[in-house]
Each structure stands twice: as structure tokens, then as C-alpha cells.
Amino acid sequence: MSKTSKKDLDNIKEKLHLRQRELLEEVRDEFDQRENQHLIDLMSREPGDSGDYSMADEVADLNIALADRQIRELRDIDEAFARVKDGSFGSCVDCGAEIVAARLLVYPTAKRCLACQERHEQLYAQEGRPTL
Ligand SMILES: [Zn+2]
Hints:
mainly alpha; Four Helix Bundle (Hemerythrin (Met), subunit A); binds zinc ion
């Protein structure tokens, strides 16, 4: 059994932090003219696994319709941090198998192994397809 190494995990957490920061900056850019104090407060906070609050919820509270994509991705990042915290990070949520570190390094928010992800996407694609 090849557990994600400490080094890989540190690397992955670093990537998650960076991506979270990028997303918040994208949101800030979209929201720039409004000088929203809440957003400024949010930006000055340390993101990531330092607290129990959800960065995604904080951003969602701002009611920025434009930020839907960012909110979705921030949610994935929040979830990834939660999994790091409870020790389930790196295990597939569907089958429980170990997700290979190489995959996590590319997709730090991956929560399924490749096989389950493909199955999930097929199901999802079918759900999204209009039935004639
Ligand atoms: Zn799986």
C-alpha cells in the first residue's frame, strides 16, 4: 500500500493554498469596483486549513453571481483540506482505493481514483444529456 508521502502531501497542500489564493484574487478582480469591506477582510485572512470556516461559503455569502465557477472550485479546495485534516485525503470517495500521488499532484482536489472518476463523469454526462 503506497500512502501519499508527507512530502507529496506538503506539495499538494501548497498547491491547494496557491490555487485558493488565485481564486480569491479572481473574485476580488471581478468585485473590484465595489470596495466590499467583507471581501477585503476575507482576503487578508490566512486561507486554508487554519480554521473551521469555509472559504467557499464566505465567498458565496458575497452573492457574486460571476464567481460561481470560483465558488465551486473553492468548495473543492475546502473539501480537500477537510480530507487532509480527517486523514481521508488520498482515498477514493467511491471505492476507498488509494489515489496515486501523481494524480493528486496534478489534480489536488481529486476525490476519486481514475476508474471511479471516469465512471462518475459518464453518469454525470448522461444525467446532463437531454432525453428525447
Ligand atoms: Zn475509486
